[in-house]
Amino acid sequence: MVAVSKGNQDAFQQLLHVHVDAINRFARRMSGNSHEADDITQETMLRLWQHAHKFDPRRSKLTTWLHSIARNLCMDHHRKNARFTPLEERSDDLCKGATRGEPETRGPEINLHTIQTESLVHGALLGLPERQRSALVLSYYQQLPNQAVAEILAVSLSATESLLARARRNLKQILDDSHGT
Prior knowledge:
Mean pLDDT: 83
Radius of gyration: 17 Å
Number of strands: 0
Helix content: over 70%
CATH superfamily: PhyR, sigma-like (SL) domain
Number of helices: 9
């Protein structure tokens, strides 16, 4: 990061190589739309380049800092654009294939039930309040430790654990309701 803050493009390219896919997956899960996720990822990486001097490794890990930037951009983007994108369109976009950085593992053996289940889960995830969705995506999909999730959400560890518990309950309720149980 010191090299990036001094304008070293090779160092920046190395950081992009390491972090861009994870940030894109996070943005896609948060926004439910690959085009929005690409925009958010690009803006996150631009901010990495422009604000590298603001990163303090004593305060957080680089991945935590980048996820914080991406989360804030997701929230800003949602506030500006959510009223224009129907939820059905947003959740359908999640199921149109692998995200950047994830190898396409589906073959002809994939069945309709699996695709429908993924669609239901992604739609339910988008139905959660933003903080709960953020906590779940960061913890389960991004596989960040709860302490890092707490730092990104700017809450205590116990508040993060509470958010995760509420998110799991709410996600289960949304999925149960969608099946009429």
